[in-house]
Amino acid sequence: MELVRSHVLVCGGTGCSSSHSEQIIEEFEAQIKKNGLDSEVKVVKTGCFGLCALGPVVIVYPEGSFYSMVQTEDVAEIVEQHLLKGRIVKRLLYKETIEEDNIKSLNEVDFYKKQKRVALRNCGVIDPENIDEYIAYDGYKALGKVLTEMTPEQVVETVKASGLRGRGGGGFPTGIKWAFAAAQPEGQKYVLCNADEGDPGAFMDRSILEGDPHSLIEAMAIAGYAIGANQGYVYVRAEYPIAVHRLQVAINQAKEYGLLGDNIFESGFSFDLELRLGAGAFVCGEETALMTSIEGHRGEPRPRPPFPAVKGLWGVPTILNNVETYANIPVIFLNGVEEFTSIGTEKSKGTKVFALGGKINNTGLVEVPMGTTLREVVYEIGGGIPNGKSFKAAQTGGPSGGCIPASLIDTPIDYDSLIAIGSMMGSGGLIVMDEDTCMVDIAKFFLEFTVDESCGKCVPCRIGTRRLLEILERITSGKGTLEDIDQLEELCLSVKSSALCGLGQTAPNPILSTLKYFRDEYVEHVVDKKCRAGVCKALLSYKIVADKCKGCSLCARNCPVNAITGEIKNPYTIDQDKCIKCGVCMNNCKFGAIVKE
Amino acid sequence: MSAKNVPAFNGTKEQEAKLMEIINKHKGTNGALIPVLHEAQEVYGYLPIEVQTMIAEGLDVSLAEVYGVVTFYAQFSLYPKGQYRIAVCLGTACYVKGSGDILDKIKERLGIEVGECTPDGKFSIDATRCIGACGLAPVLTVNDEVYGRLTVDDVDGILDKYMN
Q1: Looking at the domain assignment, is residue A536 inside a domain?
Q2: Fewer CB within 10 Å, N or C, chain B?
Q3: CATH value at residue A498
Q4: A461-490 residue pLDDT tens
Q5: Domain end: B26, B46, B72, which one?
């Protein structure tokens, strides 16, 4: 590789691309050329740095200057000042990196300090479309070691010993899954990757696909060797065009280098990889449904057993792991089991990537050791809740998970602790909610999702979730009764115990966990007909505070239904029967005299 | 979801030739139907019953099978989309940050529902699942252009850009 004195790393992940990082790269290249620096400075389009809230993000090495929210107009200044004259452009630096007169390195910033990047190790570091950069960071070294020094049995044993558990949902031990498939008689077997990341609010798999696609290819080849499969498929969401493109580029490069194909590393082992595009069905994240979809049918799940390790894709032994799980595999072989198991808790080894979103200051991707508490993630890494609001709950596990209330904020995040409090790890979406979020409305939101995504094959899910949603709609529109709450709970439990697949069995979780921790809010909706967060429109009423009202008549003149009456210079009143709760009066009042409750 | 004003199918000979090429490329491989549908939708923009019939005949599967798959997956559309396809993200992060209100405002301004297309064929609205730009929540896209960190007040300005 050519040697240059400076590298400009520009994030090309979906978050930053959406805020026009492509144009920033073009502008950097133009400005660098204009200043005659093209032989000294290299611009690299990387994967995601994680701090999506600050995008577009640019890092200049060797200084490690972290520029945030860079606009195309700023590029000329960075090139002329920083790259040409060596003067860091302070006004564009991420403010957390500036401390008095010192500029801190990224690793000292709160957002990164507590993180440990294993699965995301190369994201934001290398150019994902250049296999040489991956190889320079020890890429394909683990595959070489596995193929030339280890037997398939040793590979399976190593993964077992690492304690790695599936990062996509249930947390099943990866090594045991591999052992089942390896134990099947020789013949056609398949290795699959679930890159159909469907949980709303989770985007770590996309980040790895976009930022480090070769680590996935390497891991799948290792898995193929371990179980005796020569063919793999990556089932990836069509909604992730950048990821699909980079993965295809990476597969082509790996084939060109002989790292996929026949007789890899002269070991006699052959392995090929193909992409299959998902078509927008959440249920296809369930393993048997995913396989049915690759086979070209409606993605409906089928009963287990037989498990896919025995009878999977096209009826032959198949293993399926998700992207983040695979991203951990090369590290286990490179650094050894001991180092991997030194991170995390007793039953949850290693790290987990979370997509922080919702009402939190630092939205983005974070990777922390298992066992880190929710408080550390929300307050130390996430920077707390914006606008001085207070933390109400965090939702983990997407539509299959639950809400963790403020009283349990010191819970360590690992598979078993989360299940014990009625949530689950899921794929790692972590949505923070503040006092303005209504918990009944959130439960309704997730049920709308599952009703929409239920494939319709089994009755408990197809009909049960719809009935659950109807009860929630009654409650949020002020027509619920206390019996409704009891019925809701009972129906949740029967859907949970009788649905065919994971989607149906976990669909009631958002209701059950909010009922468990926020039952008083449900009761309030039913008995007092009130929504304390002010979200459920049917339960809101706008009122004029007589003491504050100056009688200016502005609200009355703006009310579209003439529901407000009064005399000039005297307090006005709202006729609740006429009011349509549009909120125009409140937005127009200059004295803050109108409140909604 | 039903759409209003579905125009009559008017595929061209060139499109049909492309479709046959796609069918022949995949014919005989396992699980060919879904890749063929993806590529066919790129050619026609949507998958009307006429296109589904050609695919069924070409791949030698029943039309019921094709229709079953098309209607199962959200990516496949039976109706044409507008010249400007507006997609509002209703993923959890965007929802918590108020994307529902943004969707309401767009529906009100254009006078159409989710899944529908304006009578002049200019705009269509979709409510999408998480597009993974949670750091910019709430987010909407118009074709490939992404608009993030939105408030309801931004909606008019965005739509105005595409009105003429």
Answers
A1: no
A2: C
A3: 1.20.1440.230
A4: 999 999 999 999 999 999 999 999 999 999
A5: B72
**pLDDT tens digits for A56-77?**
999 998 888 899 999 999 999 9
Q: Which range marks the domain in which residue A587 is found? A: 541-596
Q: Please check whether residue A297 touches B, CB under 8 A.
A: yes
Q: Which residue among B65, B69, B96 sits closest to A437, beta carbon to beta carbon?
A: B96
* Least-confidence region, from A195-204, A300-309, A351-360, A395-404: A195-204
Query: Of the candidates A17, A52, A239, which has its C-beta nearest B134's C-beta?
Result: A52
The CATH number for A35's domain is 3.40.30.10
Show contacts of A536-540: CB within 8 Å, 24+ apart: A536/A438, A536/A440, A536/A441, A536/A476, A536/A477, A536/A478, A537/A581, A538/A476, A538/A477, A538/A478, A539/A476, A539/A477, A539/A478, A540/A581, A540/A596, A540/A597
Rounded to whole angstroms, how far apart are CA atoms A565 and A526?
30
Name which of B134, B139, B143, B150 to mutate to probe chain A: the one with the most chain A Cβ atoms within 10 A of its Cβ. Answer: B134
What does the pLDDT read at residue A241? 86
Which residues of B are less than 8 Å from A293 in CB distance?
A: 34
Q: Tell me which residue in B33, B35, B97 faces A358 most closely, judged by beta carbons.
A: B97
Of A146, A434, A190, A217, which is closest to residue A295 (Cα–Cα)?
A: A190
Q: Which of A233, A139, A206 is nearest to A353 (CA)?
A: A206
C-alpha R_g of chain A: 27
Q: Is the pLDDT of residue B2 over 60?
A: no
3-state DSSP assignment of residue A205 = helix
Helix axes B49-59, B63-72, angle to 10 degrees: 120
The answer on B159 and B89 residing in a single domain is yes
Sign of CA dihedral B123, B92, A437, A485: positive
- Looking at residue A2, its pLDDT comes to 65
CA distance B132 to A13: 10
Q: What is the average pLDDT value for chain B, to the nearest integer?
A: 90
At residue B117, φ and ψ (nearest 5 deg) are -125, 140
Q: How far is A567 from chain B (nearest CA, A)?
A: 32
Buried b (16+ CB within 10 A) or exposed e, B52-73: bebbbebbeeeeebbbebbebb
What is the complex's ipTM, to 2 decimals?
A: 0.83
Please check whether residues B63 and B94 belong to one and the same domain: no
Q: Which of B73, B97, B136 sits opposite A52 (nearest CB)?
A: B136
pLDDT exceeds cutoff 60 at B1: no
| 8 Å CB contact of B74 and A280 | yes
Task: Report the share of chain A in percent with pLDDT over 70.
Answer: 99
Question: A236 forms bridges with which residues in the sheet?
Answer: A195, A277
Based on C-alpha coordinates, what's the Rg of chain B? Answer: 18
* Angstrom distance (rounded) from CA A286 to CA A381: 31
Q: Evaluate whether A367 touches A119 at the Cβ level (below 8 Å).
A: yes
Write out the residues of chain B at the interface with chain A, using a CB-CB cutoff of 8 A.
30-35, 37-38, 65, 68-69, 72-76, 90-93, 95-97, 128-137, 139, 146, 148
User: Chain B within 8 Å of A560 (Cβ-Cβ)?
Assistant: no
Q: Kindly list the residues from chain B whose CB atom is less than 8 angstroms away from the CB atom of residue A18.
A: 133, 136, 139, 146, 148
- B109 & B152 share domain: yes
B77-94 pLDDT per residue, tens = 988 888 999 999 988 888
| Confidence bin at B5 (pLDDT 50/70/90) | low
Please tell me whether residue B141 adopts helix, strand or coil conformation: strand
C-alpha–C-alpha distance, residues A286 and B4, integer Å: 34
